[in-house]
Amino acid sequence: MDANANARGHRRTAAPGDRRTAAFCTIVPPHVLDKLAHADDPALAEPARRTLERDALERTRRRITTVRGVVAAAPPAEPSYQPRRTIYDAQHTTSLPGRKVRGEGDQAGADASVNRAYDGLGATFELFLKAYGRHSIDGSGLPLDASVHYSDDYNNAFWDGEQMVFGDGDGEVFLDFTIPIDVMAHELTHGVTQYTANLEYFGQSGALNESMSDVFGSLVKQHALGHSAEQADWLIGAGLLAERVTGVALRSLKAPGTAYDDDVLGKDPQPGTMDDYVRTSRDNGGVHINSGIPNHAFYLAATALGGNAWERAGQIWYDVLTGGELAFDAQFADFAQLTVAAADARYGEGEEQAAVREAWAEVGITDLRSRVGAR
Length: 375
Hints:
A hairpin with a 4-residue loop joins strand 5 and strand 6 (about 165). This protein has helices at about 30-35, 40-70, 110-130, 180-195, 205-225, 285, 290-305, 310-320, 330-345, 350-360; strands at about 25, 85-90, 100-105, 145-150, 155-160, 165, 235, 250, 260, 265. It contains 10 helices and 10 strands. The chain is α+β, with helices and mostly antiparallel strands.
C-alpha cells in the first residue's frame, strides 16, 4: 500500500476543545469483546455481551452530549501545579459519577481500586506537567475525575469526554482495569487529544488518535517507573489479562501483533508496517488495529535516540499533537511529515530528525523531506 498517496494538501484543522468527532474511546477494542461474546463458555460470553451493550449506550450518550454541547468546568484563576483529583465509587451501577470516596490530598483507604486510580491520575498529570509544561488534560488545570467499580463484570475502561471510568473486569479474561497505569494514562490522553488536535475517530486519523494514547500511556508508565527507552516493556495493559489468557498485554509498541495469541481472544491483529495495513469497516475503520503502525514508528524513534523516551521523541510527538498544524482528518503520512518538521524546528538537522525519518521509513512511510521548515 502506498502510504504517501494518503497525504492530502491542505486539511482543515480543529480548534482546541472542538468536540464534533464525538469520540467514545475504550481501552479494549470492540473486535476483542465481539470475539469473547461468541465464546461457548457463558462465563466468557455474557460479560463481553453486557460490556458491548453498555459501550453502545455510552457511545450514543457521548454523541448526544456532544451535539447538545457540554458546559466545561471553569478553569482555576491560574494554572495549577498540583492535580485536582476526585475518585468516585459507582458501586457496580452505571450511574456516574457515583459516591465520592477520595478527594485531592486525602489519605489512601482500603479500596485498592480507588488508590490505584488516584495514583494513576497523579502520574499522568505529573508527566504532562514536568515533561511538557501542560497543566492537566486541557492545559488549564482541568480537574481529574474518575469512577471505579462501574457496572458488573464490566470489561473495559473509558474516557467519556469528561471523566475516567473503570470496570472491575470479569476475572476470567480481564482483571481490574485500574491495575495498569498505562490504561489510565491512555484514556486520559484521549482527553488531551480532544482539547488539541481533536483527531477524527475513524480510519487513519482515528488510528493516530489511538496511537497518541498508547504512546503517552507508555510514557507515563516509563516516567513513573524511571525506565529508559531501553528498560521499558513497551506494552499497553500488562497485568490486565487474567491467568487463563495466553498473552502479556493488549498491545505492544515494540512488536505489534505479539501481545496475545489465545484460543478465545484469537491473535493480536495489529500490523507493524504499512505492508500489513488492515482495511476494515469494523472498529471505526480499524482504529485499534492500524494504530500499531504509528506506535511502532514511535518505538523505533525513541529507542534509536535512547535515554528517556518522554524527552526527545516524546517532545516531538507532543509538539505535533499540540502545535496547531495537525488536521483533524490527518493521515499517517501527514503526521509523519509533521514529526520531521517538529524535530527540525526544535533540534535542527541532527540525530533527532534522522531517527524520526528512519523510523517512519522502517514502517513504510517514505519520501519524507529532509528539511521541511519551521512549523
